[in-house]
Design brief:
There is one protein chain. It contains ten helices and 15 strands. The protein starts with 56 loop residues before the first strand and ends with a strand. By secondary structure, the protein is of the alpha/beta class. The chain is globular. Strand 13 and strand 14 form a beta hairpin. Helices cover 32% and strands 17% of the residues. The strands form three sheets. A seven-stranded mixed beta sheet has the order 12-10-9-8-6-7-15, sandwiched between helices.
């Protein structure tokens, strides 16, 4: 049984209109269909539109969406949500699984999708970026949208991501309120050279520090976006050293399942991981990718696609945390609700003011906040309460 604490936080500031709704035939799972606003503003359109019946969407995944509750699974929930919202038939969606390490193979796979009639292509992994950029130049009449990363051409190729650090901050509050050892584990896919991962760790650490200045985040890096063996080993390492709350930026559920086996808490990522670990999952940091996928495809249908990048947040319904577990410590809900209200109002932007790093240096200035560009590409440092294992 869960407490309804900050469910659908974005509903506080937005009135969402869901095409197709969330009735009994809705796609299953917590993070499927939320966050789609029917009316969106657009810049100067660079398309005359594609009729709904002529749309065919190709999607590239680095792993099987049917495996677990992680990254690929959550993106596929977003695609299914978009399909339901827009009333697209099954034959209008084509999914391919391919590693993101070989540019030529990725380009070949994209060409196969285009040969199959796909005129909209979503590439969901960082490693697809350069191949997608090249194919966008070769096929100017096809719409390409790349998840994470930074490249775009402002025409038929854009980039999409979101302010996941907002939800990470809230989950840090949960972790800080529920640890007893003051050791919090974090399995990370990449090291400090990757701002996406490092920014998430820092946002999590800032949330922890806001309620528990004595707690530290212990980070084990796998140096792989998807490696079940390394993720399992990293989780064991952190648990063996006494971490009693486990968080993650990795694809498998090992940090959660092993935490439950050890009788300690977990904080999931990508989708609601309480499905796997109902007795230990305090909350999960989740993406509602249909908020973007629906808006993007609708703009192509309407002829309002303008090639601009997308960077949504809690206000857009793109990111959030799931309801707190009933066994969360007393006072957790109140702290989360307070921080949620500040984020939604703009009073808190997470990376505000002067931030101390774990090397003794500082980042930021009093009275200011880091820019989106800094957060997306300039965070290669760790907060002072972060310890990276060698």
């Amino acid at each position: 049984m869960k407490k309804s604490v900050c469910k659908r936080a974005a509903a506080v500031v937005l009135s969402m209109v869901l095409l197709g709704g969330c009735g009994s035939d809705a796609v299953e799972d917590y993070a499927t269909n939320e966050g789609y606003e029917e009316t969106t503003e657009a810049g100067e359109a660079v398309t005359t539109g594609i009729a709904r019946e002529d749309i065919k969407v190709g999607v590239l995944y680095i792993g099987d969406p049917e495996d677990g509750s992680g990254y690929n699974y959550t993106h596929d929930l977003g695609i299914k949500g978009m399909q339901k919202n827009l009333g697209l038939e099954d034959e209008q969606i084509e999914r391919d699984i391919i590693a993101d390490s070989d540019t030529e193979e990725i380009k070949t796979e994209i060409k196969n999708l285009i040969d199959d009639g796909c005129n909209v292509i979503f590439a969901t992994s960082w490693g697809y970026m350069e191949a997608t950029a090249e194919m966008a130049e070769e096929y100017p009449d096809v719409y390409f949208s790349h998840g994470t990363g930074y490249m775009s051409n402002g025409k038929n190729f854009n980039n999409y991501f979101g302010r996941i650090y907002q939800a990470r901050y809230l989950s840090g509050i949960v972790a800080g309120m529920n640890t007893k050892t003051n050791k919090i584990g974090y399995v990370a896919a990449q090291d400090s050279s990757n701002s996406e991962v490092t920014g998430g760790i820092d946002a999590f650490a800032l949330g922890i520090a806001s309620v528990n200045p004595d707690a530290k985040v212990y980070v084990s890096v796998t140096n792989s976006w998807y490696d079940p063996d390394k993720e399992k080993q990293a989780s064991k390492e952190l648990l063996d050293m006494g971490c009693d709350v486990m968080a993650q930026h990795c694809d498998t559920a090992y940090p959660q399942t092993l935490a439950e086996e050890r009788g300690v808490y977990g904080i999931g990522y990508n989708s609601d991981m309480s499905k796997e670990t109902p007795d230990s999952c305090l909350t999960s940091v989740i993406w509602n990718w249909s908020a973007y996928y629906t808006t993007a495809v609708q703009s192509i249908i309407d002829g309002t696609w303008d090639g601009s990048n997308y960077y949504g947040g809690m206000q857009d319904g793109l990111v959030e945390i799931t309801d707190l577990a009933s066994f969360a410590a007393e006072g957790t809900a109140e702290k989360v609700d307070e921080a949620t209200a500040k984020i939604l109002s703009g009073e808190c932007n997470v990376f505000d003011g002067v931030i101390k790093t774990n090397t003794g240096e500082t980042v930021g200035t009093e009275g200011s906040t880091l820019s989106d560009e800094d957060i997306m590409g300039g965070i290669n440092w760790y907060c002072e309460n972060v310890v990276v294992l060698e």
